[in-house]
Amino acid sequence: MTEYLIPTKEAEASFVEKRSEFIGHVAVVEREEEARAFIDAVKKHHYDARHNCWCYRLREGGVERYSDDAEPQGTAGQPMLGVFQREEVTNVVCVVTRYFGGILLGAGGLVRAYTQGAKIALDAAGISVVRRWIEVAARCPYSFFERVKLEVEGCGGVLGESEYAADVTVRALLPEGAVEPFRARLTELMAASAPLEILGEAYKAVPRAKR
């Protein structure tokens, strides 16, 4: 199965622009009913806000929807959706709530504000990679510990817990197809056959390292 990106968790973040408060909310969803339920819940919670603009993007069927919720057309929902399109994040719903502060922002200001609202909420949620992972354990001398960790990250892997004994055992999740290149790099690094144990495999979401 091909890999794809989703938010790591539900999250929210806020900022103030010219006395208007913008609150971005992001959640993971798989179906339109879930997305609509999340939007309705945010609207109910922020019933006294001037606007609750929203968008969602689903992997199944390539569904994309958005609403400006009475903001000028094209200034809210579509710019928010653009954040997730650029980041290639799917199975996501986002609502940006605006409490109007009395100062008009203009079309350009609204686009920037709603874009920022979606972006900071996504940053708070984090991004996870959904794919088939191979769990491995690599044993190495302490002098190679930091380099082995860099090699894991360099091949798109995710570090797990390390075990400390006479040597260090680095546990990691590697993408399919990266195991043998990783083994070869370890062998080259340590000028010897590198002990690499395959612990298992799983198809799941794993948080991506922050860039």
Overview of this structure, please?
There is one protein chain. The protein has 5 helices and 10 strands, in the order E-E-E-H-E-E-H-E-H-E-H-E-E-H-E. Strand 2 (11-17) and strand 3 form a beta hairpin. The mean pLDDT is 93. The strands form 2 sheets. Strands 1, 7, 8, 9 and 10 form a 5-stranded antiparallel beta sheet that branches. A 5-stranded antiparallel beta sheet has the order 2-3-6-4-5, sandwiched between helices. With 211 residues, it is α+β, with helices and mostly antiparallel strands. The protein has helices spanning 32-45, 77-87, 106-125, 145-154, 179-190, and strands at 4-7, 11-17, 20-28, 51-57, 64-67, 92-99, 127-140, 158-164, 168-175, 196-207.
Quick rundown:
The chain is α+β, with helices and mostly antiparallel strands and 211 residues long.
How are the SSEs placed, and which strands pair?
Layout: E1 4-7, E2 11-17, E3 20-28, H1 32-45, E4 51-57, E5 64-67, H2 77-87, E6 92-99, H3 106-125, E7 127-140, H4 145-154, E8 158-164, E9 168-175, H5 179-190, E10 196-207
Antiparallel strand pairs: 1-7, 2-3, 3-6, 4-5, 4-6, 7-9, 7-10, 8-9
Strand count, sense and barrel status of the largest sheet are: 5 strands, antiparallel
**Global structural class:** alpha+beta
How large, in whole angstroms, is the Cα Rg?
22 Å
Count of separate DSSP helical elements: 5
Features:
32% helix; 10 strands; elongated; alpha+beta; single chain; 211 residues
